[in-house]
Amino acid sequence: MRVRTTLGRITLAAATALAGTATVQAAPAHAETALPTITDDQGRTLILHGLNTASSAKGPTGLPWISRDDVVREARDIGTNSVRYLIQWKNVEPRPGVYDDAYLDEVAKRVAWYGEQGMHVILDMHQDIYGPDACKGAGNGAPAWATYTDGLPCTPQDPWVLTYLQPAVLRAYDNFWNNTGKHPELMEHYAAAWRHVAQRFADDRAVLGYDLMNEPFGGTRQFGFFEGPVLAPFYQRVVNAVRTADRDNWVFVEPQALGPNEGAETSLGTVRDPRPGGPRIVFAPHFYPGGVDLGGSYDGAAKLLVQAQFALWKRNMPAAARRLGAPIWLGEVGGMGQDAPGAADFTGDWLTMADDLTMGWAYWSNDPGSSGVVDGKGNPTLFAKTLARPYPRAVAGTPTRISYSSGTLTVGWKTRPGISAPTELWFPSATPPKVTLTDKPGTWRTQWDATRHVLSVWANPAEPTHTITVH
């Protein structure tokens, strides 16, 4: 989950000053140099819409609450084509150098449920507050044997994110990152654990890639003292380890959470991909603006602040992706209960931001409750209904425009030579949509799948650009 806004408040005044005004508008994605895109094995750009599965996976078993039927429902009702699936280091490597393959078998069984629905799985090595042994069970992620607090005290705090500042938690991170100079072996173990996971899932067709660490936190080193000299070399070590086992799947790297979650710039350095055939590294920031998280709202003065952070995020995160030469994907977003003031507007605004940037996302989360997609009785929430909007699942080229308004979906793209597979668009209704395309009549065709609610479009490959409008 996220390092939320209580820690981030130290960045909010600076964020607001940088934004200048809540009416600042970032340029559309197609107005800048096009970013690389995440592609499938047919060369199509993937626009990943999915959920995080799930906060319940942070418990002792490391497994989420879901059943196969829940996965079927998500694909059918929300149209998700992907999932950010949480795993934990403590479950992968319960003892130094000893891996729990029975746990990975259970993960694989659940991954197969997503594969049955044609969904792409991103395995996320999740952590919050380092691990459960850093502060009396308050965190998740690291195993006990890799937790060195050097006897410092810790009291779980409310809000929970303040626990990051407890002495024992700071020391646990400092020892992991070897800021103390005493435990260089910990990062080596972490990279080896990822290599083992990659060996297990390299040939699993449902697995698209690996999110190397959830919301990295630098302990007593932050911002430019952490992301450049510590985090980027760590990612490079893990990528190199993964590539010894899996040369094809995508690797997702996150900036530190503190600051970038609210739209502040990141100083994360470039991570090189040693695989032949071009890099498959994805920049995967989160978005939790101050004012909406931890029981906040999206109205009044809070809305003005959040809109400023929208503008910052739209400027700074794509700029970082361009600097890193990587596609961008929004790995976590959400944070409001459905009854919070402005919850529907906030959700609609970040969905529009994602469309403007031709960027995929993973909503936090699918856990039952007010901020999930089903309530405690299994009924769809406001968020399930809002997320279930038309979108292009796969685009046979480079997307230049995605927009949805008043029941009309418009998608533009540039032809990418050599792709024979169709562009696919998902719709919440089983009724065939009305379609227009800028290609010459008779040079393109469509096919409607009423079961999956998917429209397949074979555009004219001789045309350099295409724009489809679907009502």
UniProtKB/TrEMBL annotation:
Whether 4Fe-4S counts among this entry's keywords is: no
The leader peptide range reads 1-26
List UniProt keywords, sorted A-Z.
Glycosidase, Hydrolase, Signal
Q: Does the keyword Membrane apply?
A: no
Q: What domain of life does the native source organism fall in?
A: Bacteria
Q: Name one Pfam family in it.
A: Glyco_hydro_5_C
Cite the Glycoside hydrolase family 5 C-terminal domain residue spans from the record.
389-470
UniProt domain Glycoside hydrolase family: residue ranges: 46-368
Q: Which family does it belong to?
A: Belongs to the glycosyl hydrolase 5 (cellulase A) family.
> What protein name does the entry list?
Cellulase family glycosylhydrolase
